[in-house]
Amino acid sequence: MPALAPSPKAYVPFVSVENMMQLIHRIGIETMLLEMTDAIEDDFRRWNAFDKTPRVASHSTDGVIELMPTSDGATYGFKYVNGHPKNTRDGLQTVTAFGLLADVATGYPVLITEMTLLTALRTAAASAMAARHLAPKNPSTLALIGNGAQAEFQVLAMKAVLGVTHVRLFDIDPLATSKTLKNLSDSGLHVIACSSAQSAVEGAQIITTCTADKQYATILTDNMVGAGVHINAIGGDCPGKTELHGDILLRADTFVEFEPQTRIEGEIQQMAADYPVTELWRVLDGKAQGRRDERQITLFDSVGFAVEDFSALRYVRAKLQDTGLFHNLDMIADPDDPRDLFGMYLRAK
Amino acid sequence: MPALAPSPKAYVPFVSVENMMQLIHRIGIETMLLEMTDAIEDDFRRWNAFDKTPRVASHSTDGVIELMPTSDGATYGFKYVNGHPKNTRDGLQTVTAFGLLADVATGYPVLITEMTLLTALRTAAASAMAARHLAPKNPSTLALIGNGAQAEFQVLAMKAVLGVTHVRLFDIDPLATSKTLKNLSDSGLHVIACSSAQSAVEGAQIITTCTADKQYATILTDNMVGAGVHINAIGGDCPGKTELHGDILLRADTFVEFEPQTRIEGEIQQMAADYPVTELWRVLDGKAQGRRDERQITLFDSVGFAVEDFSALRYVRAKLQDTGLFHNLDMIADPDDPRDLFGMYLRAK
């Protein structure tokens, strides 16, 4: 006897890599980055509504596999993400990810999606959100050090959200920089390749460090950072991995996502335990001051936090309704009589 | 320009509910239960090879959503599982699940599968594995108290692995019992419905309690348990939820999966912190004694552990190669140049 069609509750909408790319094209990447920045900011403003479970990491010689769950009491979300710096040498992604949303009331999943692209978008959106509150007013120039898989997303978020017009690129591998230059050729931005990190930061109001490899641990030294700059450090994101010289942190005011996690994973792991930081949500919520004056150096010590993924997942779910850019996965066994799981199997013969 | 086909590494084999049901029919459910029992036992014998991260639970008023990860250093696995006792009243499953395997060396997922059916199978297999070492020799009769979604799987595992021939059913809801009777009508077993738990346990060498609702907290009282019996308690599996009267535990020798987890979630949460238990893997590995004599009461205080899911996932992955019972999910963004994630998106327009 053929199996009966599963009930609608058995289906979980799945967004493939192909459909995610189409969704970004459909919405427009700059619109999507801007809307996602707003979505993350909305969730950061209701920070205390979230169950902030620490991420669960499984470390190995070659990398780490992490599960990042959170919940706002109505919706539960988590991301599976790996970090394997050596992967690039084998033609693989350093970071791949997928994510899920579920209904807290029933525990049933309601969305599963690729999240490698979505993580690049949400990381860029989180950077732009921080810069919107911490960078000098009307910034024109971004220095981007590290021109890997995240580079163009970071650039376009700073354009879409802050109106940046000029970009100065540097990477220890010139091929990474030329790849980024080429990909941004139709972006309407003035983009140039620089021969050193020192050259790249000249005249920039925002400096973003975005490198993956553990072995280049001091991307920025103290003398490279002038007064009034905003630094967005997104590459130092696990224990033993940092990008900035500690002296920079002594001159900067540092903002973080979730202090207990950043103390372990962020740039501040090189500082004393009482090194002062401000959680970014407090700035967004008016509880703490962001940029104070035009000579202040601000640092967003970004490691990536589950709430950002949650916001991105909910954003994608909301956009899916109209586009049909998903498949229904028959992932949840849902017999007519919930106690008759075995009968459902028997009748599927 | 149409998108290029993703590389093979971008594809993750996905086993739907329908394909899982076909896989069970293809292998034969009793063969599958027996082979899965052996697979779990093989993994329990190499217990110290596993990274035994505690499960990560997100509790709400109506239930819990859990992530259960583990790794043996070569393969990583996790299960997403919810537990919502009220779901049954709304026509939903109390427990739904899906699972994933990934390659530790790269972090790339290699299998994603429905796991509601697979959890029922692995839970039954784990029960049979424990009973194989703890129950009296050549048991003929199983008493099964609680005849919900797990019932038939438990029965068939005890038949396949231990050769049980007679089954005595009881549930506070007679409809659950008649559902189970009907589903087992072609099983070759002598199955009867009993009017009480007390009646069900008469003459049974193995008593399995398998109830879901938090409000019926004492399924077995002390006077119902005779000498020489093996008890398999699988329904008490979260804080505040137990099935056995504490006096039974005072007479029994208790075996557990992973002591730190069972102290919080199992029957032994009602006992003092120094109540003695034996981790089951030590019995399988010859480090501790299982059943000692024919009058001993043995108790497997089962709460479900990530290693059991890992074994089940690896078993399914091995069986998939020949059957083709999976779909390839385009879940991992895998551009030709791993640093050119953005270029992959651009070219997909």
Automatic annotation (TrEMBL), chains A, B:
The keyword Phosphoprotein does not apply. It holds the Pfam family OCD_Mu_crystall. Keywords: Lyase, NAD. Its EC number is 4.3.1.12. GO terms for molecular function: ornithine cyclodeaminase activity. InterPro entries: NAD(P)-bd_dom_sf, ODC_Mu_crystall, ODC_N. It is an enzyme of class 4 (lyase). SUPFAM superfamilies: NAD(P)-binding Rossmann-fold domains. Belongs to the ornithine cyclodeaminase/mu-crystallin family. This is Ornithine cyclodeaminase. It comes from Rhizobium altiplani. The lineage of its organism: Bacteria, Pseudomonadati, Pseudomonadota, Alphaproteobacteria, Hyphomicrobiales.
